[in-house]
Structures are given as C-alpha cells and as structure tokens.
Amino acid sequence: MKQSAPARALNGGPIAEEIRREVAEETARLWQEHQVKPCLAAVLVGDDPASAVYVRNKVRAFAELGLRSEHQALDSSTTTEQLVSLIRTLNARDDVDGILVQLPLPQGIDEATIIEAVDPLKDVDGFHPVNVGLLAMGRPRLVPCTPAGIIELLDRSGIAIEGAKACVIGRSQIVGRPVSQLLLQRDATVTICHSRTVDLAEVTRQADILVAAMGKPGFIKGEHIKPGATVVDVGINRITDVAQARSLFGSETDERIKAIERRGYTLVGDVHPAEADAVAGRRTPVPGGVGPLTVAMLLRNTVGSARRRRGL
Ligand code: NDP
Questions:
Q1: End-to-end CA gap in the chain
Q2: How high is the mean pLDDT of the chain?
Q3: Which of the following is catalytic: 58, 119, 123, 233?
Q4: Is there a catalytic annotation at residue 125?
Q5: Average pLDDT over residues 65-87
Q6: DSSP label at 238?
Q7: Tell me: the pLDDT tens digits for 103-112?
Q8: Which of 75, 137, 196, 285 has the smallest C-beta neighbourhood within 10 Å, fewest atoms?
C-alpha cells in the first residue's frame, strides 16, 4: 500500500536553531547569575579532512553562541600515552567543562583507552562507560549527541514516541545502541536490527518510527517502510556517481547531479529518498535532517556539564 501524498520533510535546521537559542539564553543566565562561561576542549588527532571539518564547525558554533572553546590539534604520530596525558591535563583544569576527542582516531591509538580517560563529568560526547551505563539503567546524564538530537527532532515535530513501535537499524555505540535506549526510556517498543538480522524488511515494516543508522547509501527502500511511518535517516554517505544519483533522488535528481558536477559528490542517507517518500509519512532529509541537531546537542551537553560540575 502506498501513501497518497509524498512524505513531508522533517527538517532539523529550524529545530537546531531553536535549541541554539535556548542554549544562548541559558549561557547568558549562567554568566549573569554565577559568572560561569562554559568551555569545550576539542581534540583532533591526525589529518583526516572530514574530522577537521567537524571540529571546525563545532568550535565555530561555540564561538557564535558566546561559549568558550579551545582546539588542540595533535599530529598522527601521537601515541595513546601522549593523548591520555593531554586528557588528564584537561580533566584537571577547572575552566574546562567538556572534552571532545574527535573520532575516529588514527590507527595505533587505542580508542577505548582514550574514551575511558575522559572525566565522565566532562564527557560531552556521552561515550564513557559510566555515561553509557547510566543510560542503559534508564538514568541518562550525558547522552551521545546524535541520538539525543533524534529524540528532540521527534518531540519538537509532534511525533509520539510513547507506545510507538520503533525499529533502529544499526547497533553502534555512537548511534544505534544509544538511540534504542533513549526510545525505550520514552516507552517505545523497540526492535534493534543489524547485519545478521534475518528478513530485515519484514521486521522494519512493523515500525511506526524507523531509524536507519547503517552507513549504506540508499539501502532502505519502500519495501522496508510501513505506510505513513516516520523515517529518521541518520546515514551520511557521499556518492560521486551520476547514474546512482539518478536512481535515488526523484524530483531532486537534476539538483543532485549539478552538485556532483560542481564539487564531485552529493550526500545521501541510508534511506532511498524517492522510494521512501512514496510510502513514509515523514522523512528526515540528508543533508538537513538529523545532522544539524548533533552540534546543537553538543552545545547543550556542555552547558549542562558546566552547571552539573558546579552543583548549579
Ligand atoms: P557503524 O558502521 O558503526 O554501524 C553500522 C551498523 O549498521 C552496524 O551495527 C551494522 O551491523 C549495521 N548494518 C550494516 N549493514 C547492515 C545491513 N545490511 N542490514 C542491517 N544492518 C546493517 O556506523 P555508525 O553507527 O557510526 O554510523 C551510521 C551512519 O550514520 C553512517 O552513515 C554515519 O556517517 C552516520 N552518522 C551520522 C551522524 C549525524 O550527525 N547525522 C553522526 C554519526 C553517524 P553489525 O553491528 O552487525 O555490523
């Protein structure tokens, strides 16, 4: 069965903007009442261009809101011990409220050791085992930014979570697992799928809320989606092939092909946009859906951390 009207877009931009305004107000209050200005320390190791762009965007977002941030850049020959030593210094600094180590780290650095070295009270990415454990216990404190952003996007778009059948495709530490926990916390009935799930479409077609976080361009098709469902597309994949763009984008095809001609690529999520739009009720576009929420939630986590550390 098909939807009679194409899916409406669930745009993250205006919601991220709303959260930024709230964070700016909260920051101004913290300054007026307690002379506290929250500060993020962002650590970038190596020369991965995508990571450099992410860190630059985060640091810029902090500056725009009048929050402090500092950027530590280390070269790719940095050892696990050297990075742990920098994190210990940041842990000990009273003026630093949030520590973000941009992932992925270069080969040779032990990611788990680094994540565990961050003070859980400054762990604004929410990856430390203490924060992961609190979330799993139903007592979320610092929650990973993209999953927290997905919940904000649903809430502020008026999509009911309580009692809904939610299906999350992907079980990573960064997206799949934490978003499943948050949906469960909000009383959805949650199913988690992964690469070994048998008959994926049969499972995903039951979902009122379908979250795709796989890293596979356009993988989720019409057959995976319940008519009228809300589809949250977390994937960010670059495609460079014009023929692939033609098969994915429906009415947006010309614009996407122009983007490939202009800069060599265009972005697509894990959901096939043209097919999903014929079946779903709402769908987050890529770009412009979940993406903008991630930085907004990082800002909010850092301000929350500044308050919590001072018992405010
Ligand atoms: P990972 O590669 O860590 O995890 C992918 C998950 O998808 C795994 O659990 C894997 O299963 C599952 N999977 C892969 N293929 C299939 C399949 N055919 N059927 C069912 N499940 C499958 O990715 P991340 O969670 O880090 O990221 C997912 C996507 O989200 C990426 O495109 C990434 O770029 C994007 N992303 C976007 C963010 C944003 O701000 N919008 C932030 C973070 C990520 P298994 O465990 O069995 O291997």
A1: 53
A2: 96
A3: 58
A4: yes
A5: 96
A6: E
A7: 999 999 999 9
A8: 196
